[in-house]
Amino acid sequence: MIELSVFPRRGDFSRPWKWLILGGLFFLSNCSAPPVQGPGKISGFLSSSLQSQLESEKLILSVPTSQQFGAHLLYLTEEPHQTGSPRNYKLAEYVRDCFLEYGLEKVHFHDTPALLGFGRSVLVEIAEPVKKKLKMVEDPYPLDKDSGLYADHSVVPYHEYAPSAEITAEVVYANGGSPEDFAELDRLGIEVKGRIVIMRYSNPYSYRGYKVYLAESRGAAGSIIYSDPQDDGFFRGETYPLGPWGPPSHIQWGGIVYDWFGFGITPFTFHWQKQDDGTWVEGPNRNKALPRIPSVPMSHEDASEILRLLKGPAVSVGWQGGLPFTYHVGPGPVKVHLKVDNVEKIALMRNVMAIVRGSQEPDKWVIAGNHRDAWIYGGLDPSSGTAALLEVARALGTAVKQGFRPRRTIVLANWDAEEDLLGGSTSWVNDNRAKLLQDGVVYVNLDSAASGPEFDGGSTPALADFLRETAKAVAHPDIPGGSVYDHWVKASTSGTAEVNEIVGATDYTAFQENIGMSCIDMTFDGPYGVYHSMYDDYFWMSHIGDPGFRYNVTCTQLLTLILWRLANADILPMDYSNYAGSALNAIEKIENMAGLPKKIRLERARKPARRWLKEALAWEKKARRFLDSEVSLDPNRASEINSLLMGIERALTEGEGLKSRPFYKHLIYAPQPTYRTELLPRIFEAIKAQEWNDIPRYEEQLVQAFDHASRLIRRASRRL
Ligand SMILES: [Zn+2]
Questions:
Q1: What spacing in Å lies between the alpha carbon of 12 and ligand 1's midpoint?
Q2: How far apart are CA 229 and CA 249, in angstroms?
Q3: Is the C or the N end of the chain the one with fewer CB within 10 Å?
């Protein structure tokens, strides 16, 4: 496999990255310190704006409290609240009522119908050589009142969008189910056709839907994906209820839609058709973005029963997991009987939207979003993020009440159906596309707020330094007198504040990949092994993950400050020299991709990228000098300059999109179907498909984009 692949963070998918070593950090950012600020300086602000800004920052940082955060979290996690469930609509009303109470404006629902899937029953039993029914439930723990969930037999762990089916077949173990793992099975001469493929969730992280797809496309009869203790269980440390890692019975639920086939362009209702009476019926041809083989998630307790009976060759290096026996690949002799009954229906995805109207550039939107829907209780994912968003709303409302209205409009979004198909955020972006292309400033995503003390921030390169600088202005609870930035540096292996590349696959996807908006995605990490299981609940959050919610309040403060600075800066703090540097780095990485049958040189693209870098450096110097020395900037001029700066990220997209995924229009970043990073995606995909003749045309798109970016920067510079 091509070496360029790195393993990104994900949203639904939203946690597994955390036990991986991340690649793909911004090379320039890694070695450059944030811009040195004089005392009391903030990038993008005129000296004359500073006093009011600092005063208002003090106010907004003082608003979020652990009591209020905890009260929101308790309410949000009281019951399971999947997309389409009565409880999730109820929580939409709760979020709406909070937004109204805090004084936000234009509070409303944004509804879109979507196809959703639910588990109705599941039976997994070993059929041969011995008959044994597997548990397929998570064990209760008496002190955690929410953990009795499975006493209600209608609760069924499942993979959303897997079809109902009943099969009995031999089993093959395929490690993490990545393209490399299936290639290894080929090498061993082991076929999965007609068999049930059992795979582990991670190692390295690969999107679960793509694992099922790879199994399906090789003719497998069914799929089981289980949580290996090496990845998120006892192998990592103390397990729930004593520690943060997954207990033997924990099951990671999840969606497995083949989103790369139609993300953002297929209607969210897929092949279902609306009748004259308003009801929906399933159309004749199942959409190809929906799986065709049954698939179930499984605990390692159940999976070990199957794995220990597998024979065939012992696994190769890297395939052995944490269970106390030698793993074998199979096939068989163990046979499994799998009976899955899932139901699909059309229901409304309900986003809750609100704004804080801007005073001087009200047309421009700084947006923050978090999803509300959870697989089960969603203690961390996503309810901690929702509780944080509500505290952000309270802080912003308080600021406005005390006379601090932001310069630009802040939009708060509480998305639905992220876990299913990134549906809420994508549908809203589709419905507001023209407006966002024109006026979208930045999108900041918060999925899970905090499972521990370690800040984990990603962004498009233009905002990496902004993120570092803002992290310096928020206190970290573990360092007396120190900041989030200090902790970030201390906790990193490189000794620098590393900002991750982000490549879609959670709620920022549509903003970054389709619109070309600058994005930030953030969370605070700690050990966490109960992702998408029943144990991700209030008990885990309040007793194990973050007792006292100190890190969650810190996360809330940082998110509030990020929005407040982006909404108030006189000149947007977008650093395009960093971006040009990242683009040059991407060119070099593509040229040095391992295993290329022929040498690729992208000299034509490199030259304009260098020009862009030069223009950006000149602009940054001029802007800094201007902000330091001038006392005012005409609002119209400021607005014009900011529009030009926002337009640069837009210039890095083109209308056509990727050949097989037209929704993905960004020229520098895209996720692969596995959700690994794809740099310069058009060229990357042409290389993979060996379509060498397409490369000059794709390189020309880069030339145009970099030249366009340079022109926009020059215009901003002239206008200043
Ligand atoms: Zn999430």
A1: 5
A2: 11
A3: N
Q: How far is the CA of 410 from the centre of ligand 1 (A)?
A: 22
Residue 30 Cα to ligand 1 midpoint, Å, equals: 28
44-114+347-568, CATH topology level? Aminopeptidase (3.40.630)
| 245 φ, ψ (degrees, to nearest 5) | -85, 165
Could you list which residues have their CB under 5 Å from ion ligand 1? 14, 381-382, 447
Is the pLDDT score of 357 beyond 50? Answer: yes
Q: What is the pLDDT of residues 422-477, one digit of tens each?
A: 999 999 999 999 999 999 999 999 999 999 999 999 999 999 999 999 999 999 99
Is residue 418 part of the annotated active site? The answer reads: yes
- The whole-angstrom distance between residue 513's C-alpha and the CA centroid of its chain comes to 13
CATH of domain 130-256+291-333: 3.50.30.30
Question: Catalytic residue among 57, 216, 391, 418, which?
Answer: 418
Find out whether 674 and 182 touch, Cβ atoms under 8 Å. no
Which residue is associated with the tokens 């005063």? 55
φ/ψ of 447, rounded to 5, equals: -95, -90
C-alpha of residue 384 to centroid of ligand 1, in Å:
10
Per the structure block, which two tokens stand in for 322?
A: 């944490």
CA dihedral 36, 38, 44, 50 (to 10 degrees): 160
Domain ranges of the chain: 44-114+347-568, 130-256+291-333, 576-719
pLDDT in tens, 228-284: 999 999 999 999 999 999 999 999 999 999 988 887 777 999 999 999 999 999 999
